[in-house]
Amino acid sequence: MHRRRRTALALSAALVAAAPLLAACGSEAHPGAAAVVGGQRIEVSTVQAEVRDVRDAQQASPQSAQLIKDSGQLGRAKLYDLIVDRVVGRAAEDAGVDVSRKEIQEGRDELAEQSGGEEQLTAMYLQQRGVAPDQLDSAVRRDILVGKIATAIGATNSPEGQQKLNEAFTAAAKSLDIDVNPRYGAWDDKKLELGAYKAPWITQVSQGTEPVEAGA
């Protein structure tokens, strides 16, 4: 169990910078809501609060100018994270897996050790994934769940395993009937994309000893 958890979490340290984030556009078709997922609203104010947390953390970083330049507009990326949290949660329910608070803390401790300390860990997540320090537990929880889902459904470290994992996420996304405000772009269940944005980690986590690189 510990080996599988470390395998899933070790991916975080190897991630390259996410694809450039695109500006929001389109009309205001969902007043007050950025998206509706599984019948539950994700408010625009919630997305904006997530963005502010990241921007505040970036401003406090010695590399603030570069971080802000590299991350572009964060609204779409943070909405993507909020949607994918729910997609992964549904896929976890379907697979019969869950994660405890203890597992989150253990996973975070392992990542901190691998990264050279808590400060280095939070800096890595901020730089590579646009995650503010107070959003870190949520990101770690999602990583653990993805690893557990992969194990539960037998998604091995191979292109076939990644396809099987993506199929589980696609089924979960379809069941949630995701409806996104056009200003953030259109959600694609099959590609797990919001507009042209897709975080690389979601297609790279499996239970083998090494992550398979996207496009490999």
Explain what this protein looks like in three dimensions.
- It is globular, with a radius of gyration of 17 Å.
- The strands form two sheets. The protein has a three-stranded antiparallel sheet.
- It has one domain.
- The chain starts with a helix and ends in a 22-residue tail after the last strand.
- The N terminus and C terminus are likely disordered.
- It is 56% helix and 7% strand.
- It is mainly α and 216 residues long.
Could you give a quick summary of the protein structure above?
The protein has 216 residues and is mainly α. The protein is 56% helix and 7% strand.
Could you list some keywords that capture this structure?
single chain; 216 residues; mainly alpha; 5 strands; globular; disordered C terminus
